[in-house]
Design a protein that fits this description.
The protein folds into 2 domains: 209 residues, Rossmann fold, CATH 3.40.50.10490; 52 residues, Helicase, Ruva Protein, domain 3, CATH 1.10.8.1080. Helix content is 48%, strand content 9%. The chain is an alpha/beta fold. The mean pLDDT is 94. A 5-stranded parallel β-sheet has the order 2-1-3-4-5, with helices on both faces. Strand 3, helix 6 and strand 4 form a beta-alpha-beta unit. Helix 3 runs parallel beside helix 7 and helix 8 packs across helix 9.
């Protein structure tokens, strides 16, 4: 790795924003809007690698493995965010998708970027989570060089885990040996070096695609509906009833009764209705 990171794409000066400090508020918004279009192009260009990541991840989860996101700073926070949103969206156990961030929970709410330089911490995080050959580890580092992430990936590889690298610099800048190498080339940031902007946006998009795609492959979705969702508040109950009404001939009142019988699980309720199963039989059918 280079001692100076000024050559990296994520550290470059953006010619389109050299007069950022002189722009009006509307001009700032318009500039960001134009630049953010590059995030969509970056995802499109990485579509094959993202698809490969979905396939490998879903296969690992079907075998009983887990998905881990590892990062520092913004990259780490985005990984924790995506992991935290899987249980309410797909009714997965919290341990199935996990986010590991340099500095732990404290780093979610306050800057801990200094901790990203400790490669050994990344290695020890892999050991602490007892990552094994059934698991998938996604190392997220916008600038590509974060020692914490590289330490984690190397430790994960040593344990036989599937490894995925997610960065916003071209492979020519930094070569890594992983199972899937995803590069989101969004160009230089509007605010030079601030990777919480375009790089962060593209990273969140990629993680959304990866986790949602894997859950689709696991049978957590019917059509485009969240059928494997636990009803834990009024919004989710209303959504559950609408799904049941749309996918069965039942009225809202009948749907409410079925939902109650299913233990407030939409997927269970659908199987009970479609297959004429008891709750226990329906639960045994599910992944």
């Amino acid at each position: 790795m280079h001692s100076s990171r000024g050559h990296l794409l994520t550290e470059q000066n953006n010619p389109n924003s050299v007069h950022l400090d002189q722009l009006s508020s509307v001009e700032i918004v318009e500039l960001f809007n134009r630049e953010d279009a590059q995030t969509l192009r970056a995802i499109h260009q990485a579509r094959e690698q993202l698809a490969q990541a979905i396939d490998l991840t879903s296969e690992a989860l079907k075998r009983g493995g887990r998905l881990f996101y590892v990062g520092a700073g913004t990259s780490g926070r985005l990984g924790v965010l995506d992991a935290a949103e899987c249980p309410p969206t797909f009714c997965t156990p919290p341990e199935l998708v996990q986010g590991i961030i340099a500095g732990g929970k404290d780093a979610l709410v306050k800057s801990s970027e200094g901790l990203e330089d400790r490669k050994a911490d990344g290695e020890s995080a892999i050991a602490q989570h007892q990552i094994n050959s059934e698991d998938v580890v996604v190392g997220i580092t916008a600038g590509g060089t974060t020692p914490y992430v590289h330490g984690a990936l190397q430790a994960a590889q040593a344990r036989g885990a599937t490894t995925i690298f997610l960065a916003c610099i071209p492979q020519n800048d930094l070569s890594v040996k992983v199972d899937v190498d995803i590069r989101l080339l969004v160009g230089a940031e509007v605010l030079a070096g601030s990777t919480r902007l375009k790089a962060g946006t593209a990273t969140k998009m990629a993680l959304n695609i990866l986790s949602t795609g894997a859950m689709v492959k696991l049978g957590k979705v019917y059509g485009n509906r969240m059928v494997d969702v636990a009803v834990t508040n009024e919004k989710l109950r209303d959504r559950a009833l609408r799904i049941l009404q749309d996918l069965t001939p039942l009225s809202r009142e009948e749907s409410a009764l079925l939902l109650e019988k299913s233990g407030n699980r939409v997927k269970t309720a659908l199987l009970m209705q479609w297959e004429g199963l008891t709750r226990e039989e329906a639960e045994k059918r599910q992944i």
